[in-house]
Sequence to fold (126 residues):
Amino acid sequence: MWGSLVDEVQVAVMQLRNVSDASDEAAAVRLGVNRTDMRCMGCVFALGPMTAGEPATAARPSPSAATIAIDRLERAECAQRVRDVRDFLRAAVNRHAHQADRIRHGKALPEDVGAPSAPTSETSRP
Fold:
C-alpha cells in the first residue's frame, strides 16, 4: 500500500518538475535570457533589493556569471542596478522600475526584447 503511494507521489513530483522546468525555459527564451539569469531574477524578485554579488550567493552562479546575468536582465528590463551614493563601487540590484506596472497591466514581458543570443560556454547546459 505505502509502496504504491510513494511511487505515485514520486511520479507526480517528477511531472511537476517537468512542467515547472518547461515554464521556466519558455519564460527565459521569451525574455532572451538563460536559466541562470532567471534564478538571479527570482532571487531579486523574492528577496528584494540586494547587492550585485548577493545573487551569486543566493542563486549559486559564480560571481562573474552573476554579473553577466544581471547585465542581461538589465537589457531585458527585468532588473536594474542602482548605485550606492556613499560607495561608488557598490550597487544594488532591484526589479526594473516598470516591472510592477507591466505585471499589473498583463504585460510582464517587454515587447522590445529580441531573440535570445546564441548559447555560450557560460550559458550552455550539459
About this structure: The helical segments are 2-31, 35-47, 54-59, 63-75, 99-104. The chain is about 55% helix and 10% strand. The radius of gyration is 17 Å. Confidence is low (pLDDT under 50) at residues 110-126.
